[in-house]
Inverse folding.
C-alpha cells in the first residue's frame, strides 16, 4: 500500500491511498471514513484495524482519482524533526567522495557518519529544485532510501528495530558541494530551502521484506548516473535505529535518509554538477520515482 499527500483544486492538502494492482489511481483516505489532519497525524494515530481497512479499496466510498490529475506533495511536507541523515553509507560512494575532497569526506571511520538536514518544507514530486546560482556553484543530487518511523522509538534493540518502521520513501539529498566542503560541517550545504525532494509516496513497511533490498537509481536528463541496491548499505537500517534511539527519542513520523550510492555529480572526473534546466529522477524499487527540475 502506498500513502500520498496531494493537493486538491482548492489548494488543500489531502491524504490518499494507492495500490500496486491499480497503478495511477488514488483513493482519498476520507473515502474510508477516516479523518486525519496530515500524514504525521495519520502515522501517530492510525490503528492496526484502520490500516487493514485502508488496504482494501472495496471498503471505500466513491470513485478514485487519477494521480496525474493532482499535484503530489511530499508525503510529509513539513517533517517535525530535521531529517536524520547518514553520510558515506555505501562503500563505492566513499571512494568517489574522498577523490573529490579527501579532508571533507573522511572514509576510514568505523562508526556511521550522522548529520541533520533542516527542512522548512519538503519538495514534492514534480516541484522544482532551486539553483541558487549566486550562492551555489556545485549543485548535486543524491538518491536515498528514506525510512519513516512509525512510533516513538527510544532504546530500541537491533532485533526490535523493524517493528518501529512505518514505511519507506525516496529522498533526494540535494547538496551544495561548495558550501558542504567550505565549512567544518555539512548542515548549511544540505539544508537550503528546496533541498529535500521527497516522495512520491510512503510505501508501507509490510510491502517489502526486511532488510529492504531494493534497486536504487538516479538519472539526469535521462542519463543513468546512479545504479545500486539498498542491500549494499554499510550500516543497516536496524543498526541505525538502534544506535540513534539509544540516546534520543525518534518521534513517530521522523525520517532517516540512509545514504547514497556512487554516481553523484562530484564523483565524475571532471565533476558533473546540476545546472538550470536539468531534470533529476530518483527511483527506488517498489516505492516509485521522484522527478524534479532545477530552476
Amino acid at each position: 500500500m502506498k500513502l500520498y499527500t496531494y493537493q486538491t483544486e482548492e489548494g488543500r492538502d489531502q491524504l490518499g491511498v494507492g495500490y500496486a494492482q491499480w497503478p495511477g489511481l488514488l483513493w482519498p483516505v476520507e473515502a474510508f471514513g477516516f479523518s486525519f489532519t496530515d500524514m504525521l497525524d495519520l502515522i501517530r494515530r492510525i490503528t492496526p484495524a484502520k490500516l487493514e481497512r485502508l488496504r482494501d479499496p472495496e471498503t471505500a466510498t466513491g470513485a478514485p482519482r487519477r494521480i496525474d490529475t493532482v499535484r503530489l506533495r511530499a508525503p510529509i511536507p513539513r517533517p517535525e524533526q530535521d531529517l536524520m541523515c547518514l553520510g558515506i553509507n555505501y562503500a563505492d560512494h566513499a571512494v568517489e567522495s574522498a577523490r573529490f575532497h579527501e579532508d571533507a569526506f573522511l572514509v576510514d571511520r568505523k562508526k556511521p557518519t550522522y548529520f541533520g538536514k533542516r527542512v522548512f518544507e519538503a519538495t514534492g514530486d514534480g516541484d522544482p529544485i532551486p539553483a541558487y546560482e549566486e550562492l551555489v556553484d556545485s549543485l548535486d543530487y543524491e538518491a536515498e532510501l528514506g525510512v519513516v518511523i512509525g512510533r516513538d522509538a527510544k532504546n530500541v534493540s537491533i532485533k526490535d528495530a523493524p517493528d518501529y518502521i512505518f514505511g519507506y520513501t525516496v529522498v533526494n539529498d540535494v547538496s551544495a558541494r561548495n558550501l558542504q566542503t567550505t565549512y567544518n560541517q555539512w548542515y548549511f550545504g544540505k539544508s537550503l530551502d528546496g533541498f529535500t525532494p521527497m516522495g512520491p509516496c510512503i510505501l508501507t513497511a509490510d510491502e517489502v521484506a526486511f532488510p529492504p533490498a531494493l534497486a536504487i537509481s538516479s538519472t539526469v536528463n535521462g542519463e543513468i548516473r546512479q545504479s545500486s541496491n539498498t542491500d549494499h548499505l554499510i550500516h543497516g537500517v536496524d543498526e541505525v535505529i538502534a544506535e540513534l534511539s539509544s540516546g534520543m527519542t525518534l518521534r513517530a513520523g521522523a525520517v532517516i535518509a540512509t545514504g547514497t550510492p556512487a554516481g553523484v555529480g562530484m564523483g565524475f572526473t571532471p565533476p558533473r554538477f546540476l545546472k538550470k534546466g536539468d531534470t533529476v529522477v530518483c527511483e527506488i524499487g517498489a516505492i516509485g520515482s521522484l522527478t524534479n527540475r532545477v530552476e
In short: Residues 2-70 form one domain. The chain is about 15% helix and 30% strand. The chain has a mean pLDDT of 93.
